[in-house]
Write a structure and sequence with these properties.
The chain has 113 residues and is of the alpha+beta class. It has one domain (2-107). It contains 2 helices and 8 strands. The strands form 2 sheets. The protein has a 5-stranded antiparallel sheet with strand order 1-8-7-6-4. It has a 3-stranded antiparallel sheet with strand order 2-3-5.
């Protein structure tokens, strides 16, 4: 029952959520873009999802640093801890160019193939 509840919580999560964060883990790049490590970005996504669901999500945004650019979309894999069902998520970054940014996270209704 709890497994079904966790999957339902993630699969029905399509509401957009926002979370302001500071750029701990921010690194300088040779371009004008600021970047964060995948681990730092994943923590932001986990926190955002935890605000709207009682399930504990696991998030994987890949291995490359993520550019913090207004309007950029980052695809991450999301699943409930302990289960093999994986969903795609899209995190849209919003920033005014300062030290803070937030993400709007939308999780797909159906698991990935």
């Amino acid at each position: 029952m709890q497994h079904q509840r966790a999957i339902t919580a993630l699969s029905t999560l399509t509401a957009t959520i926002a979370l302001a964060v500071t750029l701990s883990g921010c690194t300088a790049s040779s371009s004008a873009s600021r970047t964060v490590t995948p681990d730092a970005f994943e923590r932001v996504v986990v926190d955002a999802l935890a605000d709207v669901s009682d399930a504990t999500p696991e998030v994987d945004c890949g291995a490359d640093d993520i550019a913090i650019e207004d309007g950029a979309e980052v695809h991450c894999d999301v699943n409930t801890a302990g289960y093999d069902v994986v969903y795609d998520s899209v995190s849209t970054i919003s920033t005014d160019g300062g030290d803070d940014y937030h993400v709007d996270v939308e999780v797909a209704d159906q698991p990935k193939d």
